[in-house]
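Bumping with the actual sequence this time:
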Amino acid sequence: MSGTGAAVGWAVTDSWTMTRRELAHWARQPVQVIVGLVFPVMLLLMFGFLVGGGKGVSGDYVDFLVPGMLALTMAFGLEATMLAVTQDLNKGVIDRFRSMPMTSGAVLVGRAIADMLQSAAGLAVLVAVGYAIGWRWHGGVLGFLGAIGLLLLLRFAMLWIGIQLAMVAGKPEMVQAVQILVWPVGFLSNAFATPESMPGWLGAFVEWNPLSATATAVRDLFGNPAAAGSSWPAEHAGLLAVVWPVVLVAVFFPLAVRRFARLSH
């Protein structure tokens, strides 16, 4: 095997080892996993049956709400990513890995793979609950798979933002401070209401929110009611649902890798 092939093989093996380590945490911390799965369900039921809403929505509100909640869940998962990374940093786990003959990026890759697996599980739970309360998709199998792909793409971008912010924050206590920034971005979207029902300046901000682009594109693929906006971001939501996550990954992935490399020296 050539030197490059051997290096790639070691990187894959190390990354899978770190992924298994992250998955093992699920068995040791089942409450944390369950809370992560149940919290989006609570939000869905709360907004669907208690708070209500749907200003400007043409059609069934549950069909509008569920895709928005799926997109919102992909953004809120950032907090769990940050907490896991900061805990590893403060417990000296990273220092122990640093002393081992391991590919330096395997820790981040393992964290990312485990995070995506948990996100996929969370999507499955929320889709099942949405179906149970009356939500239906009408776009066929390809539309359904395309929507799930866009949701996971958004999650992939958000997890690298979480990894970078975690290494900047450094301590688990600082995660709560960053959460204050995450929640407004999540709720200032079209997850619960259409931008047309909001004040003009706020609606314009909401339309350009990456989460709104994904939510709108997912609604279209599911065949669910969406905002009837005529603005550029509303008419090109599918394009933005791809471009926004790609841009975010292009920015935060190298930042995270570079920051992690500095920690390793």
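The tokens above came from a reply further down the thread. The radius of gyration is 19 Å.
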